[in-house]
């Protein structure tokens, strides 16, 4: 059950990150979505099925996560018994008498809103998807370790740090897929020259990432302090700390690639070698981002020492 829950959480994280970060990308990286669709038709067309798939996967994986939580709560002993899912009383108790119920009820509504925004017209409604994605990320803070601090000052700080960490990370990592699509399309199209439009998009993405990446790292550090407490001096002593160290190394690698993109590749974008290096670096950043989400999925089901 542990392995299945990790996989479900990982898939859900990826889908929601894409919903928020990819939709948001088209709201800041180009002057307007309409002009973006005209200037980057291939990239914009590829975004449509990506967002629709993300909405479907986010809803399906989210409901599986909900079912897994309820099965775990209603099982007796070490094993997991899913027969409790067929009992209406268990669902009533979960939604009305537990702290997890109201956030999950809200998330179900948000799944419906995301599906409607993604599938309700010829093109996904980007602002609605970005809003639904942001709300899903914030509501996620009420489902895990961050919700254990209750509603005092410490609890509110834990929830705020976790929500800020998720939203900033999703804006950064979730914007990488459309960025890579846009760079590839612009560089392969002879009628657009060899870097002007790509540089403009990169500059807008860089401004966003320049805020989001440090915020994600800083809020993540606050989360680590809350989770580890006195064990912060020797994080490798616990399973939670060891997974956290792996996540920190991966995030450091992403930050290194982001710095390489910004300070080495962007100033020399018109040079063929650096343009190719930039696309490879963004692809590597995206791949490492997926590994970061895998580590986060493991952390969510690993008891912290504090």
Verbal overview:
The chain is mostly helical and 306 residues long. The chain has one domain. The chain contains 11 helices and no strands. It has helices at 2-28, 33-39, 41-74, 88-97, 101-119, 126-140, 153-173, 176-188, 196-228, 239-265, 272-300. The longest helix is centred in the first third of the chain and has 34 residues, at 41-74. The mean pLDDT is 87.
Strand and helix layout:
Layout lengths: L1 H27 L4 H7 L1 H34 L13 H10 L3 H19 L6 H15 L12 H21 L2 H13 L7 H33 L10 H27 L6 H29 L6
Quick rundown:
With 306 residues, the protein is an all-alpha fold. The chain contains 11 helices and no strands. It has one domain.
